[in-house]
Automatic annotation (TrEMBL):
<comment type="similarity">
    <text>Belongs to the bacterial solute-binding protein 2 family.</text>
</comment>
<feature type="domain" description="Periplasmic binding protein">
    <location>
        <begin position="47"/>
        <end position="307"/>
    </location>
</feature>
<dbReference type="InterPro" id="IPR025997">
    <property type="entry name" value="SBP_2_dom"/>
</dbReference>
<keyword id="KW-0732">Signal</keyword>
<dbReference type="Pfam" id="PF13407">
    <property type="entry name" value="Peripla_BP_4"/>
</dbReference>
<feature type="signal peptide">
    <location>
        <begin position="1"/>
        <end position="28"/>
    </location>
</feature>
<dbReference type="InterPro" id="IPR028082">
    <property type="entry name" value="Peripla_BP_I"/>
</dbReference>
<protein>
    <submittedName>
        <fullName>Sugar ABC transporter substrate-binding protein</fullName>
    </submittedName>
</protein>
<dbReference type="GO" id="GO:0030313">
    <property type="term" value="C:cell envelope"/>
</dbReference>
<dbReference type="GO" id="GO:0030246">
    <property type="term" value="F:carbohydrate binding"/>
</dbReference>
Length: 353
């Protein structure tokens, strides 16, 4: 789903966490404290970093964080590569990086299934991979660095459900080829169905594409001018087209005004924070771009050193869980941001210049 240098990193565990971690071995519970490596490699060598796209302010921020966090974690990262929203290009990018002799890869998968081909190539060459933001459906990765995307959909549902008694709400979905898009979508609709039966969910499959979101939202509003709420699954690509579409129809009303459409987003970019301050949207879930970069670098260095991890709480306020595929995922915290906490200096969106 924090600050540019993670100034508020927590280094202590609760009593329960300590008890849990005491039973584990190796780099237990995902601790970021230095421990002896369980394998060879020494963590040296070039690391390739592959981005899914650069048309979103979120990924632009992540891209800016990567070299800073690589330096702070002691990782020799190459210049990032942009797959430009093309899953097949991403496999080519992985091949190119492997052919350049990288010793580790940090990849933000575009397609949870298609990425397996690239992961298989890396495994054949003995190159560890850390996945950021999106979990692969299969294939070998040392760790997935990601926030809980089910919680994204649930938080959006709960916010809208508490502020809208009945009526139509729209969720502008991400790419359903990505586990992120599927989890956010299903969590939102399931939460509404279970907890707020007077709300009717209308859906726009927009594939993380701003033009698609704008066009389909325009059509939907023509047929449903009585919309009460909107859930945008990615503010980085959906915020601007959504606000522009509402404005063009005279439907962009500020919070507190008659006819205001409650809007909840995901990402935590500065533009969303500004929109919250202006009363144009109500809330967003802050997806930790800085922590994605930091722990992507941390885990790839650990994997290159032969370290492994087990499930349990970490020393950075997250928890490592095992996915149904058997892959481990470090689920980083992603807070809900509203007008009450939008100016919190610990939010990474308030540290971007």
């Amino acid at each position: 789903m924090a600050g540019r240098t993670l100034r508020n990193r927590r280094i202590s565990l609760s009593a329960v966490a300590v008890a849990a971690c005491a039973t584990l071995t190796l780099t237990a519970c995902g601790s970021t404290k230095d421990t002896a490596a369980s394998g060879g490699g020494g963590g040296t060598g070039k690391v390739g970093v592959i981005l899914p796209l650069l048309t979103s302010p979120f990924w632009q921020s992540y891209n800016d964080y990567v070299p800073k966090m690589a330096t702070s974690e002691g990782v020799d990262a190459l210049k990032t590569v942009n797959s430009n929203s093309d899953p097949s290009q991403q496999i080519t990018d992985i091949n190119n990086q492997l052919n350049q002799g990288v010793k580790g890869l940090v990849v933000a998968p575009l397609d949870s299934a298609a990425i397996a081909a690239g992961l298989d190539q890396a495994e054949r060459k003995g190159v560890p991979v850390v996945a950021v933001d999106v979990a692969p459906e299969k294939g070998k990765v040392a760790m997935v660095v990601r926030a809980n995307n089910v919680a994204y959909g649930e938080k959006a549902c709960q916010y809208l459900g508490k502020h809208i008694s009945s009526g139509k709400v729209v969720q502008i979905m991400g790419d359903l080829a990505s586990v992120n898009g599927r989890e956010r979508s299903e969590a939102f609709r399931t939460c509404v169905r279970k907890n707020y039966p007077k709300l009717k969910v209308l859906e726009i499959p927009a594939k993380w594409e701003s033009d698609t979101a704008a066009s389909k939202l325009d059509t939907l509003l023509n047929a449903n001018p009585d919309i009460k709420g909107i859930y945008m699954q990615a503010g980085g690509v959906y915020l601007a087209p959504t606000l522009q579409t509402l404005k063009s129809k005279g439907m962009l009303k500020k919070t507190g005004q008659a006819g205001h459409i409650a809007i909840v987003s995901n990402d935590g970019i500065p533009q969303e924070f500004d929109a919250i301050r202006k009363g144009e949207i109500d809330a967003t879930v802050s997806q930790p771009a800085d922590a994605y970069a930091k722990y992507g670098m941390y885990y790839i260095k650990a994997a290159m050193q032969g370290k492994t991890f087990k499930t349990g709480p970490t020393d950075h306020d997250s928890e490592i869980v095992k996915l149904p595929s058997g892959i481990l995922e470090d689920q980083l915290p992603a807070p809900l941001v509203t007008k009450d906490n939008v100016d919190d200096p610990k939010l990474w969106g308030n540290t971007v210049t």
